[in-house]
Amino acid sequence: MAVPKRKVSKARRDKRRSSHWKLEVPGLVACPKCGGMNLPHRMCSACGSYNGRVVKAVKSAVAE
Q1: Per-residue pLDDT, 58
Q2: How far is residue 43's CA from residue 15's CA, in Å, rounded to a whole number?
Q3: 57 within some domain
Q4: Are the CB atoms for 37 and 28 separated by under 8 Å?
Q5: The predicted structure's pLDDT at residue 62
Q6: How many Å apart are CA 21 and CA 35, to the nearest integer?
Q7: What is the mean pLDDT of residues 13-17?
Q8: Domain count of the chain?
Q9: Pairing of strands 53-54, 49-50
Q10: What element of type H or E holds 10?
Q11: DSSP strand pairing (53-54 vs 29-30)
């Protein structure tokens, strides 16, 4: 059975693991109705539309 000959130091271990946890920016797309940025395949939080139809009525800040 293969066994490591020497202990792997914390610095070497952490250097190896450092590239696995990089944060990625989510791919945002513009809403075709209002132009607001949101995640793909999700309802638009600004206007409440998805796939060309209104899914949820959203109160606008201008009306209040």
Answers
A1: 81
A2: 40
A3: yes
A4: yes
A5: 59
A6: 32
A7: 91
A8: 1
A9: antiparallel
A10: helix 10-17
A11: unpaired
